[in-house]
Batch of 2 targets.
Target 1
Amino acid sequence: MPTAQRAAASTAKPKRTLENRVNDMSWRDWLLFQKSFFALPGDEVLYGDLVQFFTKRLAPDGRTNRVMAITVSDWRPAIEAHGRMLFRETVAPQDIGRWRYGETDFTPFDFIVVDMRGSGAAMAEQVAAQQGDVRRFLDNCRAILKEGGFCVLLSQEVETAAGRFPLPWMLASLARGTFRLRDERIGLQADDAAPVYVNVLQAIPENGPVHEALPTLHVGAPAIREQWVKPRPKPRNKKEILHPAKFPEELIQTFVTELTDKGAVVFDPMGGTGSTAVAALATDRKAVIVELGDTWAEIARGRIADAAGDARGRWHVAHGDARKAAKLIPAAFRPVSYTVTSPPYWRILHNPGMHVSDEGQKARQAKGLRTTYSESKADLGNVQDYQHFIDELASIYDCCADVMAPGCVLTIVTKNVKYERAQYPIAWDLVLKLCGEGGRFEYAGTTFWCQDDVGLKPFGMGCDWISNILHNYCLHLRVR
Ligand SMILES: C[S@@+](CC[C@H](N)C(=O)[O-])C[C@H]1O[C@@H](n2cnc3c(N)ncnc32)[C@H](O)[C@@H]1O
């Protein structure tokens, strides 16, 4: 070997191979599992994938890992555990409060699946009326799970006599008193079948906000048939890219055409670059928006004027605070028929973790583009405290109800976010606030906006479950 090569070989560090401490999966399969939405497979594959991700076949001491499946209603025979020891329990919704694992002397389970699918309206009633029973059931699940182990909740929204009840959010919110809420995966089905939520919980203390008691929700008939959409937005132009987070016009057009007639007024209290207005004008509606940032309001005016052509008097952009939205809408744009909007996702654009790991944010910094909306104190993206953020936002949406007739729909596009390892379910908490006792809205269903055009990142690979959250909630609420 030549001297230079020998010197290089002696100083080269030994190649480190990443150890997979969580499961026996290939890195490719791991990465695919991190995507927060997926096409729902049959039960056997669904269970198999979960068991494969959340357990190794053998524990460090050489014993076979143990998996518990607890199902409501009928036992699902398709389940098998790929070489792990499988235990099964069935519990009826009315017995949830009394359920305890029967054996007194047992090794804790390594992974638990609680399958609440198919529990129907009985479970919705149980959760709404008997929250203590559900908490007790979850405490019992925690008691048989090893420290640090994962438990997943499978559930779907259920049809009740009043309307569609968001069972998955209620279960996962109640679970926060017992487990740490990690995040969720959404199993999409064809046509208008309700998606399956896979809520991931971990047996470690919670480090985010916990609800003492959940309110009784006002629910109604779904506003929109689509349970999920995957728009293919065209790349953003030079002006649009200046804004850190716009939504695609294609998404909004779907809602506008389904929920309003031609000539109707569409409103957005946090209009950003004017996407709502562009979508409304493209479908022959009128548009009015409010936006706090002067740069964004200016960009919106330019974009909307281009889209409107000679359709003068059909749009209006107000530069101001959405807290005063009702006063900022000119008389010619009242009443509003439909409101659609996306708020800042709390202070997520300030999250230092995100700036390091998110290539979009890093690339924006490198190009000198803004990574937050503004420095203004009035900007909802700069509110420090999470509960204060939810309260402020809810009061803005209450003002929107002042300019809409009963029965009109407000669609809020948002996401459940992670911040410093805790989960902040903005979507659920907003609905609980706006549609709870005394709230001015009723919950009328969710359409998931699934972002298939964003690359996957290998967060936590080999060490921990950290998903890529690529689904946004489009929450449809009806004015009561
Ligand atoms: C997620 S962005 C909306 C983007 C918009 N949907 C689009 O497609 O361009 C949220 C917007 O809310 C604005 N905003 C934050 N606080 C506000 C407030 N108090 N009043 C009005 N707008 C506000 C921000 O400036 C930002 O443009």
Note: The domain at 27-202 is CATH 3.40.50 (Rossmann fold).
Target 2
Amino acid sequence: MSDGDIIAQADRKLGEAVETSDVAISIRGLKNAFGEQVIHDGLDLDVRKGEILGVVGGSGTGKSVLMRSIIGLQTPVEGEIQVFGQPMVDNDDEEAQLAIRRRWGVLFQNGALFSTLTVSENVQVPIREYYPNISDALREEIAGYKIRMTGLPGDAAPKFPSELSGGMKKRAGLARALALDPDLLFLDEPTAGLDPIGAAAFDEQTRELQRTLGLTCFLITHDLDTLHAICDRVAVLADKRVIAVGTIDELLATDHPWIQEYFNGPRGRLAHAGSTSLRQAPARHDDQAKKAES
Ligand SMILES: Nc1ncnc2c1ncn2[C@@H]1O[C@H](COP(=O)(O)OP(=O)(O)OP(=O)(O)O)[C@@H](O)[C@H]1O
Ligand SMILES: [Mg+2]
């Protein structure tokens, strides 16, 4: 079999797993450390397929490190991570790893756009990497489509990141995360630094894209409004592990002091009172969304 055939086979196998599994990400007994400093210890978490899972925790509790270990940028000391049933730790099946990488998109905390590339070129980077045989014209067309999907005007495509506002940069990062039509979207603090109106618009866009594309979202945020407006469930990171996961009402029923302080403190109460939830309609599952698309 040629390399292409092997990759296609790995992708088909993964496609079946994506269709049939209820759990998108499963983490068991995760331990991460930098030298003596232990960040996670005995961390368990399941992300259900088709949900937006909000991930919260104090600054420095290891939310970004958790995301990085799921996507393979941080090697855990111990533990198991599976994405759509594929083991991610110590897995040297390169084709399977490539197949899974093509199914997720990532918006990093700092945006991480390449400053010397235009918005369009930034969005084309993952397409170029994973589908090198696509023609220049088609790649550019796909990038243009992704850019418009995120609510950016078409004329943003030839601009450089330095010519964009903070909110536009986030959208450009989102367009790049969506470049490969992912099943799974990782967002690290997507609304940080945006004004409340821009943040709400970004939330709405995320919810809309998640529904229409049938995405599963792992969304790290400090933004209480985002949690109330678009997250189906919220996982709380503290004491080096996930101490609770559930709807905000379920979390409020626990008596953990950090959770009470976070959701029931003055800012938490305000967000709760003012929340316009976009969560009412249940998220569509991948297969329904794919049918609707075609
Ligand atoms: N590459 C690294 N080398 C050493 N220490 C690191 C590295 N990356 C993260 N850390 C440490 O791991 C801890 C968790 O960092 P992380 O970035 O995951 O926090 P966070 O929960 O995302 O915080 P924030 O809300 O501020 O973004 C911090 O103490 C940080 O200093
Ligand atoms: Mg972080």
Note: The first helix runs from residue 3 to 20.
